[in-house]
Amino acid sequence: MKLLLSLLALSMAQCAMAENVPAQILDCAFVQECDAASATCTTGSEPRLSFALVMSEDGETARYENNTANPPMPVSFTNDGVLVAFDPSGPTMTTVGANGIAVHSSNLIVLAHNIRAAQWTGTCHPRG
After folding, report:
1. Where is the signal peptide (predicted)?
2. Entry pTM
3. Mean pLDDT on 51-71
4. pLDDT 10s digits, 73-110
5. CB burial of residue 43 (10 Å; 0-12, 13-18, 19+)
6. Of 8, 19, 38, 57, which residue has the fewest beta carbons closer than 10 angstroms?
7. 67: helix, coil or strand?
């Protein structure tokens, strides 16, 4: 599992060194949604949430595909090879394991005195 994410990181690093190479794109689809306020989770066969993360050529930032309004979000990798993308404007965090299993979390706990935390689980895979 670590090997797959290590290869993904290596491919992103190689993209940074090559000229005219498109950025790495991760297509993410989440089939389970958990709502903190109601303490319930809903799972389906179709994605409940989907988006694509476009990695910068240097692999240090990412943005949501077709969203140029928000600044790029920082991306890091844990010692175990887990990709972590934190979007402070959300605020959301997306983590992707070496096997492609992904968790996307909304960390906006209070919005007009309502709990709005949520979490989605699914997969993210390199496009191509």
Report:
1. 1-18
2. 0.76
3. 93
4. 999 999 988 999 999 887 899 999 989 999 999 876 65
5. exposed
6. 19
7. coil
